[in-house]
């Protein structure tokens, strides 16, 4: 076997699978005890919490975006103390009003990403006094405005008094300059921005400086040529004696130039920050859009997965009803049959009930399924639900529920116990989740199977101490005692045997169930602590589900149904026997030693092979008769080793007694029985063969009675 693949949780796909496809009819019908299953689990998950905070800065009239995305966190809770170590009998459908995760459900689709983008033009930057740098620049500008105003005003007054109250052009120039500085000081805090105020002040200061410089040069030249004696002081002499008083506007020019350059550099840096902030806003907008798209994709995947699971599980019940109903009975109205009834096998009723319980499990565990679907493989927590259930009966119910679907797909479904014993043992675990995962996996396998294929489901239960380093053949001859509270390894072997012929390469390729088709199933198995592995070769696929469980209390013996008083009075001698227990069935299997069993089955039937091996381990003399062939039943010896998968279908002989003294009597008894019909007749789903055998039994009832007596005598000798 090649291409062995270990399917990690999350590397395998999921979908419900097929069921058993065989019917057995015996003269003595025996069924294993029926035990119901129950599950009540509460699994709470913290959903993804997303908080988006929008803060605005007053300095630049901008906003910043902060997004905190918290990942998924897993929290397992137990709904009540009754969930642990509670009995699985009389299970009802679970009724949960609302899962805890729904309280924290966040609708990301209500987020508008455009709300996080500022509508203001980044080029229109309003500089306010809230910034520290701008505050210092503004204070320096105001102080310089005030000093220039004071110096210009004092220069005008001083020149007026100095020139004997004569109004000269210089007086007007200083007065106008003082008014301009006063306007700059007033407008800077009201109508003009800081940038415009400093630019205007620089121009005023530069104009006053140019005027004073030109006037100073002209008066200096004219004073030297026209006046050589003492006289009144010229403007040049006055300016020379009081430079700070008359040159205040000129001295403020370098201050305004420096402030203007600082402001220009600051504005450039501010534009750069605005561009970076705008880029971050666009990224934040894209991130919000990505989150919304991701949420939509996850929501779509979740809805598709749940819809597929619901369709698969409801399809099980529909196909079962379709197999039990006459043709076109469910698709067309039949008013004339409204007063009629249809007999339905009890196994089919239980199958429909099991399928509906699976749908109920999905409806009450939507949060858990969503968590398993989107949680990373390494973060999947284990289920803490602990319930007592019969693992063998659970697998039997799964097979019954899938039987209708497998029959409709013309796929043979076989259930067997690996050691051909009765692996009905009470264990403690999450039965509902295990049943749901098996449904999903088996339904996927059945959907991929072609017509004529066979799906074998085997159950193997062994002690944990014997699981490592012990060969399966050695365990056959070893009497293993499993006590309550022991640890056992439950292994479910699922073998998908492809159709032997008639498959095209394309059909054979589609028959392989890929790992991508089991991802969800593997996640569900990991949730309950199970391990799913897969092996494949050219003509089959093998899936193994291994799960360690704790042994629960011994199975209770089924009780006989109660009879009401009215029925008891009408039928005083009526006695209703109870269901056989596992011990009763084991005792009956020991009573089959030496009895002749005739098996009517199809050639190359996988069911016949497993049934032959099982009856051989019970030391029965089994003879195989192909359906549609000769009715003569011969007895030939064959390999009777328990667990052998190579037993011949032509005939299987019984085991020889170990005592040499009884060998001759045993051979004599077998010779006497050679010409008699078998004690039990098993027919594999063939009505015509059943009719023939019933007619034969009716025509020769005495021969059957003699065969039973001689068989019993042969066993006791």
Automatic annotation (TrEMBL):
The keyword Membrane applies. Keywords: Membrane, Transmembrane, Transmembrane helix. This is 12037_t:CDS:1. Residues 33-57, 627-670 are annotated as: Disordered. The chain crosses the membrane at residues 145-167, 173-192, 243-266. Residues 644-663 have a biased composition (Low complexity). The keyword Disulfide bond does not apply. It comes from Ambispora leptoticha.
């Amino acid at each position: 076997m090649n291409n062995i693949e270990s399917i990690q949780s999350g590397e395998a796909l999921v979908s419900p699978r097929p069921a058993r496809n065989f019917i057995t009819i015996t003269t003595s019908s025996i069924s294993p005890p029926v035990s119901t299953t129950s599950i009540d689990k509460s699994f709470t998950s913290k959903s993804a919490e997303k908080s988006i905070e929008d803060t605005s800065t007053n300095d630049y009239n901008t906003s910043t975006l902060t997004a905190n995305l918290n990942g998924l966190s897993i929290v397992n809770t137990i709904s009540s103390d009754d969930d642990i170590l509670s009995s699985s009998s009389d299970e009802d459908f679970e009724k949960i009003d609302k899962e805890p995760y729904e309280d924290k459900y966040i609708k990301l689709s209500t987020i508008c990403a455009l709300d996080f983008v500022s509508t203001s033009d980044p080029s229109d930057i309003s500089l306010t006094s809230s910034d520290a740098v701008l505050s210092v620049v503004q204070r320096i500008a105001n102080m310089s405005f005030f000093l220039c105003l004071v110096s210009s005003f004092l220069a005008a007054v001083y020149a007026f008094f100095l020139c004997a109250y004569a109004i000269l052009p210089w007086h007007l120039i200083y007065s106008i300059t003082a008014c301009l500085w006063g306007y700059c000081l007033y407008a800077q805090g009201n109508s003009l921005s800081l940038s415009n105020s400093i630019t205007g002040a620089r121009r005023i200061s530069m104009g006053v400086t140019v005027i004073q410089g030109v006037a100073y040069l002209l008066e200096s030249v004219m004073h030297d040529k026209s006046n050589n004696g003492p006289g009144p002081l010229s403007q040049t002499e006055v300016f020379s004696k009081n430079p700070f008083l008359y040159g205040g506007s000129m001295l403020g020019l370098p201050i305004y130039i420096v402030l203007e350059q600082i402001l220009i550099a600051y504005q450039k840096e501010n534009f750069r920050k605005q561009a970076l902030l705008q880029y971050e806003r666009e990224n934040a907008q894209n991130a919000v859009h990505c989150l919304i798209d991701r949420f939509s994709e996850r929501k779509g995947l979740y809805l598709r997965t749940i819809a597929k699971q619901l369709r698969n599980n409801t399809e099980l019940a529909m196909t079962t009803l379709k197999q039990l109903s006459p043709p076109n009975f469910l698709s067309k109205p039949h008013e004339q049959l409204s007063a009629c009834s249809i007999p339905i096998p009890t196994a089919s009723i239980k199958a429909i009930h099991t399928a509906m319980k699976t749908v109920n499990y999905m409806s009450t565990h939507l949060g858990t399924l969503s968590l398993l679907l989107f949680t990373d493989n390494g973060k999947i927590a284990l289920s803490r639900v602990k319930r007592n259930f019969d693992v063998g009966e659970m697998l039997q119910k799964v097979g019954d529920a899938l039987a209708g679907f497998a029959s409709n797909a013309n796929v043979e479904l076989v259930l067997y116990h690996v050691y051909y014993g009765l692996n009905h043992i009470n264990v403690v675990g999450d039965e509902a989740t295990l049943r749901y995962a098996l449904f999903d996996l088996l339904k996927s396998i059945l959907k991929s199977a072609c017509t004529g294929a066979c799906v074998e489901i085997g159950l193997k239960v062994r002690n944990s101490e014997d699981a490592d380093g012990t060969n399966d053949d050695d365990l056959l001859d070893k009497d293993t005692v499993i006590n309550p509270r022991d640890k056992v390894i439950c292994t479910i072997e699922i073998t998908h045997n492809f159709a032997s012929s008639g498959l095209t390469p394309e059909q054979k390729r589609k028959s392989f169930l890929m790992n991508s088709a089991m991802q969800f199933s593997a996640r569900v198995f990991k949730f309950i602590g199970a391990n799913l592995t897969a092996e494949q070769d050219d003509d089959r696929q093998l899936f193994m589900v291994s799960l360690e469980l704790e042994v629960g209390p011994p199975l209770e013996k089924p009780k006989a149904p109660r009879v009401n008083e009215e029925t008891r009075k009408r039928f005083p001698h009526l006695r209703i026997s109870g269901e056989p227990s596992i011990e009763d069935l084991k005792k009956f299997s020991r009573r089959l030693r030496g009895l002749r069993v005739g098996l009517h089955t199809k050639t190359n039937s996988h069911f016949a092979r497993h049934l032959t091996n099982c009856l051989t381990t019970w030391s029965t003399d089994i003879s195989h008769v192909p359906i549609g062939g000769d009715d003569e039943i011969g007895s030939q010896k064959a390999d009777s080793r328990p667990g052998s998968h190579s037993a011949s279908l032509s005939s299987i002989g019984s085991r020889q007694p170990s005592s040499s003294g009884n060998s001759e009597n045993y051979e004599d008894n077998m010779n006497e029985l050679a010409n008699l019909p078998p004690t039990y007749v098993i027919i594999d789903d063939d009505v015509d063969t059943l009719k023939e055998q019933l007619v034969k039994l009716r025509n020769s009832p005495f021969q059957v009675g003699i065969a039973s007596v001689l068989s019993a005598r042969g066993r006791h000798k």
